[in-house]
Amino acid sequence: MSLRDRLRRLEARAARTPRAGKEAGAPPEGAAARGLLPAALEVRESEEEGVVARVSRFSLEERHGRFRLGEILDVDAELLGWAARHGGPLPPRDALFLDTETTSLGGGAGVYVFLVGTLVVEEGTAAVEQLLLRGPHVEPAFLERVEQTLVRRGHLVTFFGKAFDRHRLDDRFALHTGRRPLTLLPHLDLYHVGRRLFRAVMPDTRLRTFERALLGVERVADLDGAECPDAYFDWLDGVDNGRMERVFQHNLIDVLSLLALSVRVSAALAAPAPGREAAASGLLLLDAGDEERAVAVLERAVAGLEADAAGVDPDLRRAALELAADRQRRGEGRAAVLLLERLAAALPLDAEPLLRAARIAERHLRERDTALDCARRALGRLEAQAGSRAEEVRERVRRQIERLRERE
Q1: SS (HEC) of the chain
Q2: pLDDT for the residue 110
Q3: Is 286 found in the same domain as 245?
Q4: Are 39 and 157 within one domain?
Q5: What CATH number should be reported for the domain holding residue 298?
Q6: Domain range spanning residue 399?
Q7: pLDDT tens column, 23-48
């Protein structure tokens, strides 16, 4: 069905109230038992002006995949602040984990946000509130209720929310109030952070892929996000087919995964595995401006430097180069050269580590023999490269070699 047809259906329903059905009940029987969802302490549902509101509370001892919900309280707020490039800490108790369902995956004034799911940690529980739009004609009341939820916390945590959820909600607010309240909130988008940290070991960067590989969450019979709009349209028509309840469950898994993924991201930044993960973490912190902590993590990265080109991805290569530069700045030229020699051994076709080692040995260590050896090996690697840029570098290295030989 085209978006135009969907909008016509929405207009036709504008003055109608959806019929209550089994969608308004608890999650499908056995969902928690199958491991899709942790067991809720309570589930309360109410009908307000423009809104069906459902609140589910979970003990912090419950688990979502591999992670206990209470682990969110142990994350490093400063690290998450650096990851978000916020300039300050992002305390987990101040976080509003947010996910939305919309009538289209596109944008524009005709796209409605019909379900807003949020999670906060309060009163020793993880509280999930899901607000369902009862129909387009009551959207102002729905948005007012959503804004009451937004002001409860100081920053957002989403997955791809900077590109999607935030804009879709702000578009609706702007249409009715002229304001864009979500833009004002600090925002940790786990999509961008997760992509930086884990892209080297992931086939793609979808939330489901992160869930399966990093969180141990395997969705079973989950409604695909692309099917959620039609389920909502059917619900507005009073069709009691159970799909709207599956939309609630889909959204609930999303917000629980935001919490668990925050824990995993924090762990990757605070104590990453040596090698690729540490390289990505250190570079993220370095680019965000936390140089001191970045250097410590980069040290962990190069501990996993492998003498095999297949094991040295671009992040690990850059991590070694950045760390060598840091050692040089600290006056540790010998340590910088040794690290560059390790990188050169791991990347037998890459001339850059040897070029840098030759420069440090000549200018800072005053070690002519070491500089000459590195420059000659670099030139050998450069000979296989084509293009005017490669020829310029070769000519520069030849001049360096001649200069060093004259000092014999």
Answers
A1: CCHHHHHHHHHHHCCCCCCCCHHHCCCCCCCCCCCCCCCCCEEEEEEECCEEEEEEEEECCCEECCEEHHHHHHCCHHHHHHHCCCCCCCCHHHEEEEEEEECCCCCCCCCCEEEEEEEEEECCEEEEEEEEECCHHHHHHHHHHHHHHHCCCCEEEECCCCCCHHHHHHHHHHHHHCCCHHHHCCEEEHHHHHHHHHHHHCCCCCHHHHHHHHHCCCCCCCCCHHHHHHHHHHHHCCCCCCHHHHHHHHHHHHHHHHHHHHHHHHHHHHCCCCCHHHHHHHHHHHHHCCHHHHHHHHHHHHCCCCCCHHHCCHHHHHHHHHHHHHHHHCCCHHHHHHHHHHHHHHCCCCCHHHHHHHHHHHHCCCCHHHHHHHHHHHHHHHCCCCCHHHHHHHHHHHHHHHHHHCCC
A2: 84
A3: no
A4: yes
A5: 1.25.40
A6: 352-408
A7: 344 444 445 434 468 999 999 999 99
Domain count, the chain: 3
Among 229, 249, 270, give the residue marking a domain's end.
Answer: 270
- Given 206, 238, 270, the domain boundary residue is 270
CA distance 299 to 297: 5
**Residue pLDDT, tens place only, 214-231:** 999 999 889 998 899 999
pLDDT in tens, 69-93: 999 999 999 999 999 999 899 999 9
Please name the residue that has the structure tokens 């589930």: 43
Q: Within this chain, do residues 308 and 373 fall inside the same structural domain, yes or no?
A: no
| Same domain flag for 10 and 130 | yes
